[in-house]
Amino acid sequence: MSLHDLSPAAGSTRPAKRKGRGHATGNGKTAGRGHKGQKARSGGGVRIGFEGGQMPLHRRVPKRGFNNIFARPPEAVNVSALEAFDDGAEIGQLELLEAGILSGCKFGVKILGGGTLTKKLTVRANAFSAQAKNKIESAGGKAEVV
């Protein structure tokens, strides 16, 4: 197979509607824009969030707290999800991804203490909650910060 052999699946694409090409097409004359008004003009329309001069919602609602735009939040995994692994297994990010417990792992993994753990596991993660670390160690395993 080469690049020139590739094509979309049959029926998945449709030809574009040709606007303003006559009355018989059903999209002629005003080309689906209606009659007059700001949105009928070329280059017309309003920006996203514009409410006709009324104070827009994003300015009416008060700001609360602080939102760190540079935050790098880790993916959270509960201790109960680790029950899927065999007793004595060593678990890291790669194993969690392969098992389907994590879908993505951009900024690391944090193990949280939700649920119970009965198996002796060695868990390697970027962070552990105090409860999670306690549950892993009480089951006879190890919690290693990477």
Write the layout of secondary structure elements.
Layout (H helix, E strand, L loop, with lengths): L56 H4 L14 E4 L11 E2 L1 H6 L10 E4 L9 E4 L1 E2 L1 H9 L3 E4 L1
Parallel strand pairs: 1-3, 2-4, 3-5, 4-6
Description:
This protein is α/β, with parallel strands linked by helices and 146 residues long. It has a domain of 71 residues: Ribosomal Protein L15, Chain: K, domain 2. The protein is 13% helix and 14% strand. It is built from three helices and six strands; from the N terminus they run αββαβββαβ. The strands form two sheets. The chain has a three-stranded parallel β-sheet. It has a three-stranded parallel β-sheet with strand order 2-4-6. The longest helix is centred in the C-terminal third of the chain and has 9 residues. It is elongated.
Keywords:
146 residues, alpha/beta, 3-stranded parallel sheet
Question: Quick summary of this structure?
Answer:
By secondary structure, this protein is α/β, with parallel strands linked by helices. It has helices spanning 57-60, 93-98, 130-138, and strands at residues 75-78, 90-91, 109-112, 122-125, 127-128, 142-145.
